[in-house]
Design brief:
Shape: elongated
Strand content: 15-25%
Helix content: 25-40%
Oligomer: single chain
CATH superfamily of the largest domain: Vaccinia Virus protein VP39
CATH topology of the largest domain: Rossmann fold
CATH class of the largest domain: Alpha Beta
Strand order of the largest sheet: 5-4-3-6-7-9-8
Distance between the termini: 76 Å
Structural class: alpha/beta
Length: 296
């Protein structure tokens, strides 16, 4: 008795057949095989996913599709293949020079808008694609901001995103490294809101190959405990914050206690926020009244 099988990708004649075959190819490699296939098919067709479903399922398979699936089967992230990632309702260009914005990081923007709805000056430390800074500015129409990164290539991506989103007149992207003395000079502080998604992965952590082999290591790893960046950055934040200002930092889901201890030693009170999976994801930091530091 023979077992019916879906079409091989090379034999697929229609978009619908190719999607079924691509899902089979990707199935052993990712738990989002069908979704990835749909996104890559829409990209190959130059169409939206809704247009794909409504109008294009009977179309011939685009010539580029097989190569896109081969790249995904080799664990290359979908966002790098398409060059785009949605974050907080905005479309960001991404390249292997920047981390891919994750939806779990959107909790930082939600917390920022709740805590600092009237913020006028925003700083994003380690801006990468510019996702945190630009999403915040998009929802704070009276604010301007500064994004810093030590990677010129990452800053080029962020500048492109600022221009595409029409936020370049309110966003300044600067080369700076918080490990380097004097890095705060010329930032134009103090700031009402500071955002940061610093490197926080332990050097020996087991990561999916799509992350470890493709995303920039300098934006991922931070020493044996994943805490090196917090130990350097957090003590410098009080001097950058305006009186009553707020800093919100992303953390690894097992790091809340350790990072909170670093923050308290720097004079902060901390409030923990959870992500979509109810995991600890961000710490909101404020200097208690009467303990404000000196502005940078």
């Amino acid at each position: 008795m023979s077992i019916a099988r879906g079409p091989d990708l090379a034999d697929a004649r229609t978009v619908a057949e190719a999607l079924r075959a691509a899902t089979e190819v990707l199935g052993p490699r990712t738990d989002s095989a069908r979704f990835d296939a749909e996104v890559l098919m829409a990209h190959a067709l130059g169409a939206s996913r809704s247009e794909l479903f409504l109008k294009r399922m009977g179309d011939p398979v685009p010539a580029a599709f097989a190569a896109l699936i081969a790249r995904r089967a080799a664990h290359e992230p979908v966002a790098y293949i398409t060059g785009h990632q949605n974050f907080f309702g905005l479309d960001f260009a991404v390249t292997p020079d920047v981390l891919i914005p994750r939806h779990d990081s959107e909790v930082l923007i939600e917390a920022a808008l709740a805590a600092c709805a009237d913020a006028r000056r925003v700083l994003d430390c380690g801006t990468g694609s510019g996702a945190l800074l630009l999403a915040a500015l998009d929802h704070l129409p009276r604010a301007s901001g500064v994004g810093i990164d030590r990677s010129p290539a990452a800053l080029a991506v962020a500048r492109g995103n600022a221009m595409r989103l029409g936020l370049d007149s309110r966003a300044v992207l600067l080369t700076a490294d918080w490990d380097t003395p004097g890095w705060t000079q010329g930032l134009g502080g103090p700031f009402d809101l500071i955002l940061a998604n610093p490197p926080y992965v332990e050097e020996a952590a087991e990561l999916e190959s799509s992350v470890r082999d493709h995303e920039p290591a300098g934006a991922l790893f931070a020493g044996p405990e994943g805490l090196d960046a917090y130990r350097v950055l957090i003590p410098q934040l009080p001097a950058l914050l305006a009186p009553g200002g707020t800093a919100i930092l992303e953390i690894g889901h097992l790091q809340a206690k350790a990072v909170e201890e670093i923050a308290r030693a720097a004079g902060f009170a901390a409030c923990l926020h959870h992500d979509l999976a109810d995991r600890p994801r961000a710490l909101e930091l404020k200097i208690p009244l009467g303990k404000a530091g000196t502005s940078a």
